[in-house]
Amino acid sequence: MKNIDWSQLGFHYTETDYIVRCEYHNGSWGEPVATHDKTIQLHLSSTCLQYGQEAFEGLKALRGVDGKVRIFRMRENARRMARSAEGLYMAPVPEDLFCRCILLALEKNMDYVPPMGTGATLYFRPLLIGITPRLGVGPGHDFLFAVIPSPIGPYYKGGFNHTTPFIVNRYVDRAAPLGTGQFKVGGNYAASFRATEAAHAQGMSCLFLDSVERRYIDECGAANFFGIKDGVYVTPKSTSILPSITNNSLMQLARDHDIRVEQRPVLVEELADMTECGACGTATVISPISRVIDPDHKRIYEFGDTPGPISTMLYYALLDIQYGKEEDKYEWCTVI
Predict the structure, then answer these.
(1) Quick check: 23 and 141 in contact, CB under 8 A?
(2) Distance CA 143, CA 131 (A)
(3) What global pTM score does this model have?
(4) Domain segments of the chain: what residues?
């Protein structure tokens, strides 16, 4: 295991020994290659640079109580990347090839899987880009798939116990209902920066609303939203929201604990009736929300500076599966 101060890691890039890459040419994928080279030689007119033909994913490997390493829901990430690829007219990475590349990246960087109890994990960033040189508007037909591993710490320094204030933004649309919001593509995040950076400058994160009526909750920064209303787990449903693998897992765990789940349009005014809410995703699992400020309507929705009881239960229920403390009855983890 590498001599790294795991407890001091944040959610930033730390170089490992290898990345894995694989290329698509003439209608077929080549073999994965592990390499020390973290750079690529790319034509300036490649479709990823000219027209944003790019998709990515994020998933983690964790060292469990038994010393074994678990990768959480790897095949769901493979399927979601395939949907993103199809949405941007790219060649999907076959599910088995995606998994082979993740496992090769883990094998070559096993010393970077942090010890259990440090709050750190080994994060994988699978990346798919169009590399065909092209000036005319249209999709490429050559692609590069790469897996970039990096040990990371909590997204927020305080981890789960760090509650975050959010501010409602009605002036920047993150994604359109029939656009690319349901796909994990870089353009969605670049489109959000005007709002998220303005919120960060005020010490907050950004709560996006739908781009049609601007009345319904869309996403929390780069994560899905959920709230607890009358004991019910409520999370938005929209074609502009990225289907979160973490949110999907939390919904299943809520049902397992006899908590009703509603996935539906959620009006921002419903925050007044929620006792707790949070942002959820791979990076944070759950980031509890302390308050939501709606400057246009001059309202502040308060949820407290400590995580709520249902958020706490779901957070640790998911981590217990990831660390091998509890039965993985849905076989979410690939155990190494």
Answers:
(1) no
(2) 5
(3) 0.96
(4) 6-152, 159-322
